[in-house]
User: Fold this.
Amino acid sequence: MPMKTYYLRGFALFGALNFVLFFNAYAENGITEMDAAQFLDEHFAPLIADDDPACAFGVARNGQLLASHAAGMANMEHKIAATTDMVFRIGSTSKQFTATSAAILARRGELNLQADISAYLPDMPILDPPITVEHLVYHSSGLPDPYDALVLLTGDVDGNRYPASLTLRMARNVKTLNSEPGSRYEYSNIGYLLLAEIVEKVSGQSLRQFARENIFRPMGMHNTHFHDNAQELVPGRVSAYSRSEDGSNWEWRHSIFDEVGDGGVFSTLADLARWYDVYRDPSALEGGRDLLALLLTPGKYTEQSPQYLGRTMSYGFGVQIYDDDQGRMIGHPGGWAGYASAPFYFPDSNVAVIALCGQKNIDVLKRVVDAEAYLRGAANP
Assistant:
């Protein structure tokens, strides 16, 4: 089921998704560093004007950027130009790291994926049939997402007019599910907030600490963290913006929401290039190939398989998996409070394409989609 438009944590950079589909075909011809740089210069540099909010784009192989490009303003008030090493909030792309944390604990035998979540969160209501940890991972818990009600109640889509902890309190008052657990793929941010709580209960660490020690540090992702303190300074952070309601000017967007799990990660092009190489070479992580097999194990649904943007997909551990005539594609788009991200990895060509933005301007997305015609031609000269 496609996510509703106000699920900004699950925002899809639709143009970038279309871009990477066709880039996959191009990369199969053997893209070089020069090819990648020229491609970004010609087809991404024009997307963002110098005085627009910032975006950064990269093409990577084997965990290293072949080429990268940044454009626009990281801070519009102070006229600070974006650079390729700056830090962006990545929204629901964060879900991979929450789910990977759960997978690591499961492989250790410390977390039972088939257990009722009340075994780890005893203040959750006991339901029949039960919601299992695995249901949270695969968006099949049936839990109603509290963001729906909070947006309607407050008119706030950035988490600034209600305490972040309210989302978890609302989850504990659920009396009725949207569907029977395990039956349907229904994208659920609250499921990943609860999954984060379970990781913390089992590990005895905050999700931030656990992910730093078991994922980010081993992968060399030194500029990536779960942002669980809204007041914390982030060196090199890009500010995010959106158009005013009448479209006449840019407005600053921010969020004090600091519950993490469904989102909350800050990262960079280079760090995400390293992360997406895990789908080729997982040896840096505890469990290696066995862990990777678990991460790519798709969820099973008794009634309805996952659909996204009108396409059938599989959903693994916080990651979307597409298999079609374009080849395999692995990734997860995200967005929150003006930020948008769309990183995807293509195993067939061993190329990752990463798009990070401090804006969600529909005109920019349209221009990315418009690049398809050229990419088709490049792939089939």
